[in-house]
Amino acid sequence: MADPSLASTPDPPYVAVIFSTQRTPGDAGYAAASDRMLELARVQPGFLGVESARGADGFGITVSYWRSEADALAWRAHAEHLPVQARGREAWYAGFELRVARVERTRSWRPSG
Amino acid sequence: MADPSLASTPDPPYVAVIFSTQRTPGDAGYAAASDRMLELARVQPGFLGVESARGADGFGITVSYWRSEADALAWRAHAEHLPVQARGREAWYAGFELRVARVERTRSWRPSG
């Protein structure tokens, strides 16, 4: 997935959608769809940021940040997102856990000097 | 980090600590310390599970799950954990974001048949 870096999010509270996935082997259109979904998510109302990492073993975590749960649910129901979710279950994922959470406390750190 | 797989967590609510990090190049004792912290976290009161992924670019996300925020804070203050946190800022991380969140809604999926 594109843009694997730290997301600068506003002060809490806000919503985090933690999407943990085990990929099946091979691409099968995954990379292109993933890039497109990221591009589309970024322009949704209430989108605050996204972080994503996947290891060579195919296990990955993507956390998207939203102003409200309603904003996260609207993205879930987006007309272009729904068929991609179905494709994920059919082809790309060997399993996933999705957790919707309310961020209450944060700490940022960058090296000084 | 060891054990990169989906965590089976109980029904919400529970607490997620989302730790997003950019690693500096090289190991410098990171892998051994990371394994030890995982081993130690697993036996702390209120520990529910952990998921972790890091890409080849050094960007990683580790999410640990806890019964309560008090349990997560106790782990943060653990005598063996504190010097490792300091070492992280000195040597291993080029930056991090830590977010404490309350998980309110979950969805699990595994392939059927």
List keywords for this structure.
four-stranded antiparallel beta sheet; homodimer; alpha+beta; Alpha-Beta Plaits
If you had to describe this structure to a student in words, what would you say it looks like?
2 copies of one chain form a homodimer. The longest helix of chain A has 12 residues, at 30-41. Chain A starts with 13 loop residues before the first strand and ends with a strand. In chain A, a hairpin with a 4-residue loop joins strand 2 (47-54) and strand 3. Chain A has one domain: Alpha-Beta Plaits (2-Layer Sandwich). The first copy, chain A, has 3 helices and 4 strands. Chain A is of the alpha+beta class and 113 residues long. Chain A has a 4-stranded antiparallel β-sheet. At the A-B interface, strand 1, strand 2, strand 3 and strand 4 of A face strand 1, strand 2, strand 3 and strand 4 of B.
Which regions of chain A have little confidence, pLDDT < 50, spanning 5+ residues?
none
Cα radius of gyration of chain A in angstroms: 14 Å
What is the level-2 CATH architecture name of chain A?
Answer: 2-Layer Sandwich
- First and last CA, distance of chain A: 31 Å
**CATH class category of chain A:** Alpha Beta
